[in-house]
Write a structure and sequence with these properties.
Blueprint lengths: L5 H8 L6 H12 L3 H19 L6 H8 L2 H7 L18 E2 L7 E6 L5 E4 L5 E4 L3 E6 L8 E12 L8 E4 L4 E4 L3 E6 L7 E6 L2 E5 L2 E7 L3 E6 L2 E6 L12 E8 H12 L2 E4 L8 E7 L4 H12 L3 E4 L4 E4 L3
Parallel strand pairs: 6-7, 16-19
Antiparallel strand pairs: 1-2, 2-5, 3-4, 4-6, 5-6, 6-9, 7-8, 8-11, 9-10, 10-13, 11-12, 13-14, 15-17, 18-19
Organism: Prevotella illustrans
InterPro entries: FecR (IPR006860), FecR_C (IPR032508), Ferrdict_sens_TM (IPR012373)
Pfam families: FecR, FecR_C
Length: 318
């Protein structure tokens, strides 16, 4: 197999967006040799250590990659894929399924990454960390364009009045004609959020009467099992597509729940104060969970313990 381009790897491990073709190159490289998995893990730890110790925020990325010398690249021979990919070796980026599966396409984005892609109808989709998007090619030739989302995604939907675009999630369906919006709906969490920036969307629940319509700059969230509509001032909820996690006046308990989803770990919160303590903060997607927790810890003065081997964190316990 042709050697992987080092500049491509640097961009990937830094959390910079890649095209479908670039991400496929990295994925194919990973799958071509089982030894690459350990090499990936080695470079990821090196990068985390360097970025944490870089002196100035505006120079961190440049400083980190200057520090990772060519000999080190040659030694670890690494493709820049984050550690979560080790646990999903059976998932492929944009891989055709068996014909019996209706020509299904599955896109999985591992921990610490985000991907921009364009669907057959011209719709642009950004997928957040630890997110899966599934769709059948045949659906884009039928009356309804439908995708299934488990995770978080930002959509810019191509207008087509004759072919509604539907996003199915574990809790609600979001139907649009042509619009820009963000959906957060991980199957293993009760969190559901939809924020609309352009156009109009309609939210409904299969088998349940009633629906909610969102207009631009409105957001819908589930609170105590009820769908609530509020106004959202800006596209901060979609900043993850540029490599930044933004939390705007959210409780620390909610922040921890989202971090658990993004980093594919279990976080058990035993500190009841965090359900009432609000914070506004930003973190780079390339930062490790320990780096983020240390920053939050300085703000809220809580204790935590992280069992990296079992990917489990307990907050409120030393």
């Amino acid at each position: 197999m042709k050697p992987i381009d080092h500049q491509l790897l640097k961009r990937y491990v830094a959390g910079n967006p890649l095209s479908e073709e670039e991400l496929k190159q990295v994925t194919d490289w990973l799958q071509s040799d089982s030894a690459h998995q350990e090499q990936l893990k080695a470079l990821h730890h090196v990068y985390d250590g360097l970025i944490w110790n870089a002196p100035a925020e505006q120079h961190r990325q440049r400083t980190v990659w200057q520090a990772v010398s060519r000999p080190l690249w040659k030694t670890v021979q690494v493709a820049a894929m984050i550690l979560a990919i080790l646990f999903v070796a059976d998932k492929f980026f944009m891989t055709d399924r068996d014909s019996a599966d209706g020509g299904m396409q599955t896109v999985y984005v591992p921990q610490g990454q985000h991907v921009k892609m364009v669907l057959a109808d011209g719709t642009t989709v950004w997928l957040n960390s630890n997110t899966t998007l599934r769709y059948a090619i045949a659906d884009f030739r039928s009356k309804k364009r439908q995708v299934t989302l488990d995770g978080e995604a930002h959509f810019q939907v191509t207008k087509d009045a004759d072919h509604p675009f539907v996003v199915s999630t574990p809790r609600y369906e979001v139907q649009v004609l042509g619009t820009t919006f963000n959906v957060c709906a991980y199957g293993k969490s009760d969190i559901f959020e939809t924020s609309l920036y352009e156009g109009k969307v309609r939210l409904s629940r299969p088998g349940v009467a009633g629906e909610m319509v969102l207009l631009p700059h409105q957001t819908a969230t589930v609170e105590d099992g009820v769908l609530v509509k509020r106004r959202v001032a800006q596209e901060s909820r979609s900043s993850w597509k540029t490599g930044i996690y933004t939390f705007d006046n959210e409780t620390l308990a909610n922040v921890l729940e989202k971090l658990a989803l993004y980093y594919n770990i279990v976080i058990e919160n035993r500190d009841s104060r965090l359900a009432k303590r609000h914070c506004t903060c930003k973190f780079r997607q390339s930062e490790s969970i320990n780096q983020i927790m240390e920053a939050l810890q300085k703000y809220a003065s809580f204790k935590y313990r992280y069992d990296e081997a079992h990917r489990r964190m307990i907050v409120g316990e030393s």
